[in-house]
C-alpha cells in the first residue's frame, strides 16, 4: 500500500474524519506536468495525495478521455488496489497529435475519498509508421555553411484559425512570431 502524505498537524487523533479535505495534486505523465508534443511511448502517471484522513491509499482509479468532460473514456483502470501513486503505466494505444485528459480517484484506509482535477497530455506528430507523412517546407539560406545567416518566411492563412500547432526544429536556435508580433 502507498503511504499518504500528511502534515505534522494531521498526525494526531483522527476521530473527526470530516475535517480532512483529501486532495490529489502534482499529476504528472512521465515526470512532466501537462506535456505537449512528446513521444510518450508507454505513458506512466504519478500523483501525490495530500491532507488525507488515512495513512495509506487503499484503492485508486485512473480515467483517460479525449474530452475534458470525460463523457467517453478511452481508458478506465477501474477501482484497483495495485495502482501505485509514484508510477502506474497506462495500457493505452496513443494516437499522434491528440490531447488526452486524465484524472485519478483515490480512497484511503479511513474511507476518505477524492477525485483529482483533470490533467492533460498531448502526443506529438508520429515519426514512424502510417501517420508519419510529414509535409513541410524547409527554410534554408543560399549561402556558404560558414555564414551564420538569418532565415525567415511569412505564412499567410486565408481562413479563420480555431486551433494551430507549429512543429519546428533548429537546435534551439529559432523564434516564432504570430500575427507579425515581436518580443
**Sheet with the most strands, sense and barrel status:** 7 strands, mixed
Beta-strand residue percentage: 25-35%
Poorly predicted ranges:
4-19
Average pLDDT reading: 82
The secondary structure category is: mainly beta
Oligomeric assembly: single chain
Order of helices and strands: EEEEEEEEEE
* Separation, N- and C-terminal Cα atoms: 50 Å
CATH architecture of the domain at 2-123: Sandwich
Which helices and strands appear, and what pairs or packs with what?
Blueprint: E1 2-3, E2 23-29, E3 36-38, E4 44-50, E5 56-65, E6 73-76, E7 88-89, E8 99-108, E9 113-115, E10 119-123
How does this structure look, described?
This protein starts with a strand and ends in a 60-residue tail after the last strand. Helices cover 0% and strands 29% of the residues. The protein is built from no helices and 10 strands. Strands 1, 3, 5, 6, 8, 9 and 10 form a 7-stranded mixed sheet that branches. A 3-stranded antiparallel sheet has the order 2-4-7, with no helix packed on it. With 183 residues, it is mostly beta strands. It has a domain at 2-123: Immunoglobulin-like (Sandwich), CATH 2.60.40.10. Residues 4-19 have low confidence and may be disordered.
Summarize the structure.
The chain is mainly beta. It has strands at residues 2-3, 23-29, 36-38, 44-50, 56-65, 73-76, 88-89, 99-108, 113-115, 119-123.
List keywords for this structure.
183 residues; mainly beta; Immunoglobulin-like; seven-stranded mixed sheet; three-stranded antiparallel sheet; 10 strands; 0% helix
Amino acid at each position: 500500500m502507498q503511504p499518504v502524505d500528511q502534515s505534522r498537524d494531521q498526525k494526531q487523533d483522527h476521530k473527526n474524519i470530516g475535517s480532512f479535505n483529501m486532495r490529489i495534486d502534482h499529476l504528472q505523465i512521465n515526470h512532466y506536468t501537462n506535456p505537449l508534443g512528446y513521444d510518450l511511448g508507454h505513458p506512466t502517471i504519478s500523483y501525490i495525495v495530500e491532507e488525507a484522513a488515512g495513512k495509506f491509499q487503499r484503492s485508486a482509479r485512473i480515467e483517460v478521455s479525449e474530452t475534458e468532460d470525460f463523457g467517453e473514456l478511452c481508458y478506465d483502470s477501474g477501482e484497483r488496489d495495485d495502482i501505485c501513486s509514484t508510477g502506474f503505466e497506462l495500457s493505452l494505444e496513443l494516437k499522434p497529435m491528440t490531447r488526452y485528459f486524465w484524472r485519478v480517484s483515490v480512497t484511503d484506509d479511513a474511507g476518505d475519498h477524492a477525485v483529482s482535477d483533470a490533467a492533460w497530455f498531448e502526443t506529438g506528430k508520429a515519426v514512424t509508421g502510417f501517420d508519419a507523412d510529414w509535409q513541410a517546407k524547409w527554410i534554408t539560406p543560399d549561402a556558404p555553411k560558414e555564414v551564420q545567416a538569418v532565415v525567415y518566411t511569412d505564412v499567410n492563412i486565408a481562413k479563420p484559425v480555431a486551433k494551430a500547432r507549429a512543429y519546428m526544429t533548429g537546435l534551439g536556435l529559432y523564434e516564432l512570431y504570430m500575427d507579425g508580433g515581436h518580443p
